[in-house]
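dumping the sequnces here before i forget
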Amino acid sequence: MNKPMIDRRAFLATTGAFTLSFAVPARAQQTGAPAAPWTAYLTIDADGKVAMLSPTTEMGQGTHTAHAAIIADEIGVPLSWVSVDTALPSDPFRRGGAMGSGGSAGVRAWWGALRSVGANARASLIAAAAGKAGVPAAEITLDEGRFLRAGKPLAVTLGEAATLAAGKPVVEGTPKDPASYRYVGKATPRVDVPAKVRGEPVFSQDFTRPGMVYACAVLSPVFGGDADSWDDKATLAVKGVEQVVKIPGGAAVVAKSQWSAMKGAAQLKVRWKSTAIDGLSSDAISAAMHRGLGKDAEAIVGKVEGDTAAALAGAARTFEADYEAPYLAHAPMEPWSITVEPTADGGLEIWGPFQTQDRNRNTAARTAGIDPSKVTLHTLMLGGGYGRRLGDDGTPAAVVTALAVKKPVQFFWRREDEIGQGWYRPAQVARLKAGVDASGKVTALHIRTAGPSMRDSFAPGGLKQGELDGSSVQTLTDTRYRTGAYRVDWVRVDQAVPMAPWRAVGATQNGYFMEAFVDELAAFLKKDPVALRRELLAHDPRALKVIDEAAKAGDWGKPLKKGHARGFAYVESYGSLCAQVVAISLEDGGVVKIHKAICVLDCARVVTPDGARNQVEGGMIQGLSTALFEGIEISGGRATNTNFDGYRILRMNESPHAVETVFIENGETIGGVGEPPVPPATPALVNALFALTGKPIRKLPISATLAE
Amino acid sequence: MTTITLNGQSVTVTSEPDTPLLWVLREEFDLKGAKYGCGIAQCGACTVHVGGQAVRSCVIAIGDLDGQSVTTIESFDGQHAVQKAWIDAQVPQCGFCQPGQIMSAAALLTENAAPSDEDIDAAMAGNICRCGTYPRIRAAIKAAAKA
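..and the predicted 3d for all of it:
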């Protein structure tokens, strides 16, 4: 179940196996420079087992099931014969010098390459089988692992053919018509589900090593702070506690068990060093960002089409609104931990929930002062990621602890650290100003966003002053809406609050800004919100189809019960077009009840429909959760809502009972599935509330705005 | 010394009496299906049964459980109707919260063979799923009720 990462050399050393290596080409990134290709390996051994080794991490998004399905279909073997493993970091699996998973790339980037390598494997195996049987290869098919000639099986097994093919050049094959696939596009069950339902997978907190101790982090609640001194008398009196170790950012309480470590940590009295941000608050951050909106001279251009200033000056009427989105925690259900073991040769062996293997490996090596080649890093199953496990912020302290105690250590954060230590989705504000002509046609739109640079926080020094952080204008610079003159710019307002990509990244806050504004603009123009979107997309049949399908599935325009309303939103991200409708009512005490949730996703092709549907449902619910409740509150330089009593997440009783999902497939380039359903959910809900109450929601979360 | 019936067997617990049940299960008995998620009974990842009721094991001291019967997901062995329904509905994504979800659902169905949506809301509101699998959990509970 929780398979260890596989060493490439060992993987390729299987005797007699037929092996193909293949490259997954780079594709344009939404932010940042294009990257080098990935390499992956496919082998078929003498027992007929098909194995793939790739750099993708499985974190519940179903990527490995999708990869196995494509390979099984192309070669023509039962799905159960195919395994997919994650490789230990090594050069063939890196791009841009690093191995990692993200960008909803797990299937869309791999689709073409997996079909080709599967087709080549099939052609090579058939050639080998035909050669052994002395029959023409053109008459042979490979079906569910058997070689057939005129419907009759040949006396050659897949494993025999693989052994024969191993010594010969690869035969080029042609990928099948996807319509003939058995697993792709069908209700293929996920390979990781049965064990998860039995509670068997070994997540990072379940992992153990012989002689291992536990270390509970006690970290500065102020971002970037550190311990000055501490009193550990009560801590050391706790049964099982062995020692307290100084770590970057605070202390680690080392004990025989996790519970002893936590109990000891609760007793540690730490005096924290004062910092430059001890007075930082949400209000101050908000005020600074809003001031940024007025700083024309500092605005960094994301996109310019025509002369927006002139078009706005000459408009018959203008409409303007400001919006604000808060910092968001990823809040995976698993609080972070990793296990670090010093090895006899002076190296380190590490196990943990990684989305960026090389970043963590290099950080561990740097901390220990050793060469990265002496660090072996294994990826365990992730108890949720959503971008939080792209970081390496806990790794140095874990390595320091292991080197201090000189034995295997499971170093862990409590929930309060998981939420309170940052690496958030950025807070951001926006001002949108539209001009319309006398007929009510939109002739100009200027969008200015202001906020911190996520990229520079996530990779310090990654963005020079004056450069554009693509995530701060993501989805705004490449919108399909045509508004006449169009300008997008961003004013950088940095804060000492750590940030990281958060599922769908800049598309979440920017999708909210744009889509909430479109509904307010529609009301200003006395137009139907869907009709206005159709006007702005009149030139684009693909987008119109997504809009129309969502309107149809969501009963747009049909009568509603009194006190009920619908909201609509459309956001394109990660290569997929997504429109959503939510139907709501407002119950006693201002409780928002979500009655219906509709998602139409044009990702061009769906590889594992049920897995994709699960991603859509979860993505939309995560978006609704952020809209209603989520936002990090900062006071005294620290997050003040760091557990689920304060950082509220949508629960069963608050969730829509179903998310109706409609996929649109076409001949366009395959798009992402894991992220695109998240961004439209927030504005769809916001727009439903606007329709219901006539009051716009210009600051998230909704619960805070409604309470005002 | 505290004695409990753990998954049908009488066991004597050696952990300190103030140790929460969750860490007794995970660290003394190596039953790791129940997870640490929040430590304050807010997320439900640690849910197990005590006397057939779903409880948050992260806040119940073992010393208070003398003579009680504790049931964990390991005792279900994949054969429980709820687990089968979970597979049919392909509920999990990351999977971390799912043992807790399953234990809450199993306790609900023992008490109420045909739960309404409101019953499901009430029984499951204490279990957070960050991946957002709630619609599938609801569907699986209804399917298990019919099984």
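Residues 481 and 537 of chain A are 5 Å apart (CA to CA).
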